[in-house]
Design brief:
481 residues; five-stranded parallel beta sheet; five-stranded mixed beta barrel
């Protein structure tokens, strides 16, 4: 069988997709990038906010047309949208042949319709859900009502087959699944289940295998990466994991994504500062700065506690890059609340900021609140914050001109012919700005090479640099201004 696959949403969803591809390839199926040539098409969906749901539905409808006009005889929908709207998908899109929720990843061979599902049997005791089953329980942590799906419990391990879809020099490693928090705006605990950490041995074995395949950068992900091990009663587990990963030959960078303000401990910061391969990069989704808004969001902290936390991070990890995400337009957000958030962004001077307008999602606790901030006001506030952040970044980028920096080469730039593209230690793939490399031979510098460069100018959020040494440089050779 030729299997076409589309994966939408976050890196955590991407890993699930790579596992499904791994099972399909292990069973002897051929993976094709041409949907028109596929016998089976799998759409791995996202359902976090309205825009993501619409993107997923559009992709499903587009692929459904291949059942009429192409070779496709079977359409499978997986991921968060499938977990959230099983019955609705079947009712509204009858071209769908099978639905897999987030806890049913190993059942992909059954869903495809051809293959030996025993290959995946050890990974899941959950029966495959075809049409007619109800969607997952609406409140995480509560027992499922009669006729409802139990919350997912699945998580992959080092022995699970996986086909990487990222460039071969970097890979995401999911160190835990699910979430125990009750943030008012978030549906993830319902879609992914409670927090559950993988064992350190499983993660280290997977990391060694990835390094042996040429992976140079590991990106550790979960819904709250700094909560790792706490659910198992293993305090300090993340810091110990980082030190073990730091000893693996072949890796250049180890990056942490999705940290939580109440679980960032000093031992993790010390490991980040002391381990030469662990990127000094803190991705900390704070969501807001107003105490009143944070309380309604069911998030911890306030402006004062966040200031103390960020100062502690900067003191313990010199040269650290700070990234955050913020939400504007949450129910009840006043102009005073927004002004406090604006001042927080101005004073903190984050290196990277992602700003989202609040999406009113059924199944979340915030859905009971009135969506009382008009869409035009949400857009104005978002645009205002982005304009302010752009000025902050412009000043910081100007200060970097002339600095000597190490750049991890990602390959030819999709934007500029004859130019390579790469990233600094403080830039994560796909979500942050990049470095364009000029005056270099694009044919001889491979992806994943760590090269020494000098920054010559800035273009918006991005930087332009020239290599002056082709050999890999030593770690920790530059500290951010």
């Amino acid at each position: 069988m030729k299997i076409g696959f589309i994966s939408l949403g976050c890196p955590k969803n991407l890993v699930d997709g790579e596992v499904m591809l791994g099972y399909a390839e292990q069973a002897g199926h051929e993976i094709t990038a041409d949907a028109g040539d596929a016998d089976v098409i799998v759409v791995n969906t996202c359902a976090f906010i309205d825009n993501a749901k619409q993107e997923s539905i559009d992709a499903i409808l587009e692929m459904a047309r291949h059942k009429k006009d192409g070779n496709c005889s079977r359409l499978v929908v997986t991921g968060c949208l499938a977990e959230r709207y099983r019955d609705e998908l079947r009712k509204e899109i009858p071209e769908i042949d099978a639905v897999l929720g987030t806890g049913e990843v190993p059942r992909i061979l059954d869903a495809i319709g051809v293959g030996d599902s025993r290959l995946a049997a050890r990974d899941s005791a959950i029966p495959l859900t075809f049409f007619g089953s109800s969607k997952a329980a609406s409140n995480a942590g509560q027992p499922p009502a009669a006729g409802r799906q139990p919350l997912p419990t699945y998580i992959y391990d080092a022995d699970t087959p996986r086909l990487l879809t990222t460039p071969r020099h970097f890979a995401y490693v999911k160190i835990a699944e699910g979430c125990d928090y009750t943030c008012a705006f978030c549906i993830i605990p319902t879609l992914r289940g409670g927090y559950r950490s993988r064992t350190t041995d499983s993660i280290v074995r997977e990391a060694r295998g990835l390094a042996a395949r040429g992976v140079r950068e590991l990106l550790l992900i979960s819904q709250d990466t700094t909560f790792y091990g706490i659910d198992r009663g293993e305090r300090g587990a993340l810091a110990r994991l980082l030190r073990e990963l730091n000893a693996i030959d072949g890796l250049a960078w180890i990056r942490l994504l999705y940290l939580y303000p109440t679980t960032i401990t000093d031992d993790v910061l010390d490991a980040m500062a002391e381990c030469e391969k662990v990127c000094r990069y803190v991705d900390l989704p704070l969501q807001h700065a107003s105490a009143a808004v944070l309380k309604r969001m069911r998030r911890p902290g306030n402006r004062k506690t966040y200031d103390r936390l960020l100062n502690r991070i900067r003191e313990r990890v010199p040269g650290v890059t700070l990234r955050t995400t913020l939400i504007v337009g949450f129910p009840g957000e006043t102009e005073t609340d927004y002004a406090e958030l604006e001042g927080f962004v101005t004073d903190t001077r984050f290196d990277h900021v992602g700003i989202f307008t609040y999406s009113h999602e059924e199944g979340t606790r915030a859905f009971a609140l009135p969506d009382d901030v008009p869409a035009s006001v949400k857009r104005r506030r978002r645009n205002g914050l982005m304009a302010r952040q752009k000025k902050i970044v412009a000043t910081a980028q100007k200060a970097r001109i002339g600095a000597e920096v190490d750049v991890l080469v990602d390959g030819p730039s999709p934007q500029h012919a004859l130019v390579l593209q790469g990233r600094l230690e403080g830039q994560a793939p796909d979500i942050d700005s990049v470095v364009f490399l000029t005056d270099c031979d694009t044919e001889t510098i491979p992806r994943g090479e760590l090269i020494r460069t000098r920054i010559v100018c800035a273009r918006g959020y991005d930087l332009v640099a020239k290599p002056f040494e082709s050999a890999p440089s030593g770690p920790r050779s530059w500290r951010a201004p």
